[in-house]
Input
Amino acid sequence: MALPPEKIQERAIKAGIRASKRRHRRLKLEELLKLKIQILPNALRWALVILGLLMIVGAFTGWPFPRDNHQVLLGIGGGLLAVFGCFGVMRTLETVFDTIAAEGVGLILEGILSAIGHALGL
Output
């Protein structure tokens, strides 16, 4: 499930502003492309966390599998799903842009750089 370019741009702008404020200067293009953004949609992340927690509760209560070895596997699987949902999938902008058409990348980069410059007052 891929994010639309608008969401990628929004998340990249937030990450760029945070990084620029941390460094107290405008980012160069190479630094901007190395920023990591979350590519897993928030709704899917929430669904994974809730499903993982439900699996953990099911493991502790013995439902739907009454055998101990099934409960252990259900608990481990639920824990992995919950952790994966919490942390999600992070990719660098360079990796994300490899999957987008070339003209879209240029527009997104221009928007990100102008938004960062505007936010920092540069």
